[in-house]
# Entry
Amino acid sequence: MRLLIQGGRVLDPAHGVDGRLDVLIENGKIARTGENLSAEGAEILDAAGLAAAPGLVDLHVHLREPGFEAKETVATGCAAAARGGVTTLVAMPNTRPATDCPELVKLVREKAAATGVNVLPAGAVTVGQKGERLTDFEALREAGVPALTDDGVPIQNLALLRQAMREAASLGLPLLDHCEDRDMVQNYAVNEGAVSRRLGLSGRPAVAEELQIMRDVMLAEDTGAHVHICHISTSKGVDIVRRAKARGIRVTCETCPQYFTLTEEEVLRQGAMARVNPPLRTQADVDGIRAGLADGTIDAIVTDHAPHTAQEKARPLPDAPSGMVGLETSLALALTGLYHSGVLSLNRVLALMTSSPAALLGLGKGTLALGADADLVLFDPNEAWTIDRERFASKGRNTPFHGRSVRGKVKYTISRGNIIYQEG
Ligand code: DOR
# Structure
């Protein structure tokens, strides 16, 4: 099987490549890149006017299966990934049962195998994500998990967390941590601040996130573990990571389009559709996240794709579940909010969505180097379009970006040389 992608603007941030080139794919691998390649018998894909980059690597996705198939299945989540240009994703373990043993890791991988998307289930840190007893990290590593996390359920017990970091460090597994002190945030729906006061609701304070980031940084230094802070949302949180990195501590972090695009005000307009954990914050936080992306403190842009049913999201704000879908909008939102607005170069946006997240977890993905898996996204970086949740492949329609005008449209997604999505 040979595929020749002709005439696109090829961007491979890991190797500083940015030029009008052809890419030849053979047997699912990158065989050659260069000008005016010819390859007899190859299928031709005309990429004139398009950018061709490594397939996106999303470190934070909730696929919901097993247990919550009304929200999403592995198949529908992977279809959404393909539509969004995502070829590799890390699946969060807050399924039912939780992904806390090799059998469940295997189950998710088997369900994903037919989709063409490279799904890597993360293993739970504690049995059933209950925060009481550590899972068998070694067995999970053997089953192929790239990292450990109790995402969605922050770990409160510091002795247990320290033990987890020690064991994770000894096995070379990163620990991905959702930072929000549970006692402080309870099941509150919005950021603590002007909007929560206006709505007469208790809020989730920024300091609940920042304290756990600080705690994680200190434990990372103490244990030598690689701690990766999930979906960072506050300016001060970014600053804590910035200073920790300067001290040589093994801490990395990610953020999501919602945190560099929206503020807590969105809750006043869209209610539960804008409910997410951690919550949307203030404009100063949005600015701080953008600064962290610009100076390299933030290592990755992920989605925290968190589908919920329409009925669930129709509940009153205090009772609705938190989360928003993101797989089908992340590239456009990143291009619109960061590249077209002049915050980052196109190359840098793509690095944050491909080579950098792949390198964090040592996935061997996110590059167009010779011999690499032929995972690519082909997109028009400039095309203007309007986000329409009714067209999503995801079962989840819970996006606060419905109706928003964006620029940057995915045209083809290629995974191991196979076209797994083509527009129209
Ligand atoms: O808003 C969120 N939803 N944040 C999380 O950490 C979990 C996620 C979910 O699973 O719905």
Remarks:
- The longest strand covers residues 2-12.
